[in-house]
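Try this one yourself first.
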């Protein structure tokens, strides 16, 4: 055995069946330590629960259980302090931990693996990892929603253009815009809550996939780990990765929402729009064009969205066509899982700070919205109020807009005589409708952009945010 093949004399867990050591390059190719070390806390937590149960059930003695648990707790400390040698030759994080346990407490360490397999371990670790990651992501989304609420609350007097097809459509309160995103992120939180119901199962005791002849108490390990219950079917417990797919799908939707929001920030901070200003601390410059102030953070959030979509396609493709039950392909689930989790969490957190670091150009929005053609819907609705069928009202208003454009005037600047040439029902009260303020004030339908409706929405969100 060469020095490198001897793996510093550490034996792989399955080595005894083979007379030749595993090929060095094949081992390097199959090792996941570089990636799955991130599960060390979850793996140790799972092992402690399993050993506690083994001791309680008399599968190992209480003393052995105590000794193993103390060893595992020490190892967690060593990890926390960066004192563990992450030797890739040990194949994966489960083996790194078991090997270290053996170095610390001797052969009794081998009892930790009674009635379990790395298949159960990795499935349970992933569920524990998802538990804490979902909770971090939810709290980051809540923080973002609090910022959006604060913005909506403090900008109730600001009117801007609402767009469809990126064409000015109708004036809306900017608060209404912020609250629209708040709703989307709220659904993202609900989606995480919902998928957590399916994460909430322990896989410990599946014993590779068929169950064990040892009297394992899988309800006990599940409850020690804070899961609602264990699996019902041991083969299902270790075979599927649908919860990872669901989680990355939820991340993809969060990123899609962030990316659309980021796109608005990028557009609105441009010289062409100039609706908002990024603080210097959240802008980048150009190495050649000294005047540049770029929205790189928003662009990177938009860019990372593609990365997370890629992670989703990655895991979906890995799982497609795998025969039941475990296959080593499934080890490749962790890079997309960790990447999607980190990219999404980082993006939500930085985006929250980005929004806090923007200032709305109130004066510019006021000047731009004042006499804009986006008031045209007001004329159409005014005519409807005067009993004109909407189709006709729309046609008449279209002609009024064409007239205004041809005569280079604005809707509020046209005389009543001119208005009357389009429809005799138009009276001088038309002018009261032709301001951005009256446009939003006149909205009566529930959930609209009227100040009263926005106030109602704010009250609802205030109560909701105080519960989270
Ligand atoms: N590193 C492996 C994974 O992530 C752990 C399970 C190994 N199981 C096995 N039968 N080789 O999937």
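Now uncover the answer:
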């Amino acid at each position: 055995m060469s020095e490198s093949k001897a793996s510093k004399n550490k034996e792989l867990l399955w080595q005894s069946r083979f007379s030749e050591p595993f090929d060095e390059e094949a081992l390097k190719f199959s090792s996941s330590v570089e990636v799955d070390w991130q599960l060390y806390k979850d793996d140790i937590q799972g092992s402690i629960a399993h050993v506690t149960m083994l001791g309680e059930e008399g599968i190992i003695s209480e003393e052995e259980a105590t000794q193993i648990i103390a060893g595992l707790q020490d190892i967690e400390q060593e990890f926390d302090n960066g004192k563990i040698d992450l030797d890739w030759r040990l194949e994966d994080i489960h083996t790194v931990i078991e090997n270290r346990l053996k170095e610390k407490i001797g052969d009794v360490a081998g009892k930790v693996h009674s009635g379990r397999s790395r298949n159960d371990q990795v499935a349970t670790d992933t569920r524990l990892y998802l538990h804490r990651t979902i909770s971090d992501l939810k709290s980051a989304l809540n923080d973002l929603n609090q910022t959006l609420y604060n913005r909506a609350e403090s900008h109730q007097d600001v009117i801007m253009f609402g767009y469809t097809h990126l064409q000015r459509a109708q004036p809306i309160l900017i608060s209404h815009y912020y609250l629209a995103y708040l709703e989307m992120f709220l659904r993202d939180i609900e989606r995480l809550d919902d998928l957590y119901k399916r994460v909430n199962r322990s896989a410990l005791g599946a014993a590779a996939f068929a169950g064990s002849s040892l009297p394992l108490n899988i309800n006990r390990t599940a409850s020690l780990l804070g899961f609602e219950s264990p699996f019902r079917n041991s083969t299902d417990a270790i075979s599927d990765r649908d919860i990872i797919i669901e989680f990355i799908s939820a991340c993809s939707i969060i990123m899609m929402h962030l990316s659309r929001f980021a796109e608005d920030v990028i557009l609105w901070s441009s010289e062409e729009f100039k609706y908002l200003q990024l603080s210097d601390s959240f802008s980048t410059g150009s190495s050649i064009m000294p005047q540049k102030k770029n929205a790189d953070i928003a662009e990177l959030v938009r860019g990372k969205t593609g990365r997370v979509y890629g992670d989703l396609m990655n895991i979906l493709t890995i799982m497609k066509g795998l025969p039941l039950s475990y296959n080593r392909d499934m080890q490749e689930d962790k890079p997309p899982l960790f990447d999607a989790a980190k990219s999404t969490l980082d993006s939500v957190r930085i985006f929250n700070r980005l929004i806090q670091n923007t200032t709305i150009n109130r004066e510019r929005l006021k000047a731009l919205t004042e006499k804009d053609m986006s008031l045209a819907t007001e004329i159409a609705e005014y005519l409807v109020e005067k009993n004109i069928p909407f189709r006709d009202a729309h046609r008449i208003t279209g002609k009024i807009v064409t007239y205004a454009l041809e005569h280079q005037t604005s809707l509020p600047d046209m005389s009543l005589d001119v208005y009357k040439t389009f429809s005799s029902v138009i009276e001088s009260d038309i002018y009261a409708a032709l301001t951005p303020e009256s446009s939003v004030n006149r909205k009566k339908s529930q959930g609209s952009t009227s100040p009263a409706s926005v106030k109602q929405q704010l009250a609802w969100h205030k109560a909701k945010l105080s519960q989270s």
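Discussion: The pocket of arginine is lined by residues 32, 92, 118-119, 122, 326, 328, 330-331 (CB under 6 Å). The two ends are 59 Å apart (CA to CA).
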